Amino acid sequence: MAKSESITERAGASYRADGSCAGTTAEAGAPSTADQPKLDPAVVAALYADHAEPLRRFLLGLLRDPALAGDVLQTTFTKAVELGHTSSAESRKAWLFQVAYREAAAIRRRQATAARVTKRLAWSQRAGEDSADEPLIRFETVEAVRAALAKLPAKQRQVVEMRIYEEKTFATIAEELGIPLGTALARMRAALEKLRNSVPLRDYR
Amino acid sequence: MPHEKPDDLDWLAFCYIADELSRDEAGAFEARLADDQQAREAVARAVELTRAIAAAGAERRKRPAPASRAAGVWRRMGLAGRLGRLAWAAAAAAACLAAVSVYQHARDTSPVAGTRQEAPGEGAIETSGSRPGELAVVWSRMREELAALQLDGWAADLPEEDEASDDPALFPAEDRLLAEGELSEDLLAANLPPSWMVAAVRAGSGGPGTEDYGNSIPEEN
């Protein structure tokens, strides 16, 4: 994971010096972060257990690439080992997301992936291709979604299927169904709300 | 966005990951992600929900309904090409011969010709006292059942008109109907049993053209 090493090497100083990083405890008169003890490995492991999957999904939403998301996730927790002690325990989750966001943004800038990313819609369709170490979706979630989909009104389910399964844009869906774009969007939004309310999504509190 | 509802944020996050935002909107949302933890978590939720929907659809496609499973069989048959169709045709021919045997058995054991009989595994066969008529009934029923099985293309492999028996002596009833104008030539030709089925019936009944192979076997000393 060569890119992670380079990111880690460069980012170590930047995070330490970045006062805007949420949860930083560095204050005037406080001891230097270099003098503080690093996080206990057990604490990092607990952080990983609690936040790795939401972080991975967040990174997937940013990068649209499971492999890159996995790399940045590892980098994020490498930083947690090195610099996690600079954040307060209460804000550590936000700190992890912040680090992940910055790492992902750096990758996108470096690789100029933005243009490529927008063309790569298929990422959301490859749910069945996740490797065993990337359990993005739990079985019970899929089952709950399936049941909730079956209960949707036919018109809403149709838009969901055309958007997610057939990868059509809302403009195309509206055109094919002969409905205004706003109607297609409203159906999708209503469907997503119902699905979200009936599915045991992870606790993001 | 101080007055933004959680649903609004979830919808915005979905539009972002679905690439439904304009470049400016996407840029603004990404800038927001730098500091807004709720927005970050909305992205994670949107990814989870979208992928769960995709996974549910993928599993549904892997588990087709019974009807589409049958259609899949025929699609695979089409991919298998003519060899596969020939195999099915052979199986269907065997089924036809079995039907003929059933018909003959039913006929031979019928106490009175022209009564209604039940053949094993079949519905009632209405016999008319005319063997060609009975044969035509069996053949017609077999064709209907094959058609019901949606053997697309199979019918094209059935013996054509020129392969069907045209022995007028076997179909006196049809001759009469033709003469009286109650049956057209086309309709009759379309429903004639193939010559191999007629030959099978003949062989079973010892009719004309039947070879008595049993008599040709030399007796052992």
What would you say this structure looks like, in words?
The complex is a heterodimer of chains A (205) and B (221). Chain A is mostly helical. Chain A is built from nine helices and no strands. Chain A has helices at residues 2-17, 41-63, 66-83, 92-111, 114-119, 139-151, 154-165, 170-177, 181-198. Chain B folds into two domains: 6-62; 81-213, no CATH class. Helix content of chain B is 63%, strand content 3%. In chain B, strand 1 (116-118) and strand 2 form a beta hairpin. In chain B, helix 1 (6-17) crosses helix 3 (37-62) and helix 5 packs parallel to helix 9 (195-205). Chain B is rod-shaped. The N and C termini of chain B lie far apart (109 Å). The model of chain B is unreliable at 66-84, 111-130, 146-172 and 206-221 (pLDDT under 50). At the A-B interface, helix 2, helix 4, helix 6, helix 7 and helix 9 of A face helix 1 and helix 3 of B.
Looking at this protein, list some descriptive labels:
heterodimer, A: 205 residues, mainly alpha, Arc Repressor Mutant, subunit A, 2 domains, 9 helices, 0% strand, disordered N terminus, B: 221 residues, 63% helix
Task: Give the largest interface.
Answer: A-B, 48 and 35 residues
General form of chain A: elongated
Which structural class fits the helix and strand makeup of chain B?
A: mainly alpha
How many DSSP helices of chain B? 10
Strand content of chain A: under 5%
Q: Main β-sheet of chain A, in a few words?
A: none
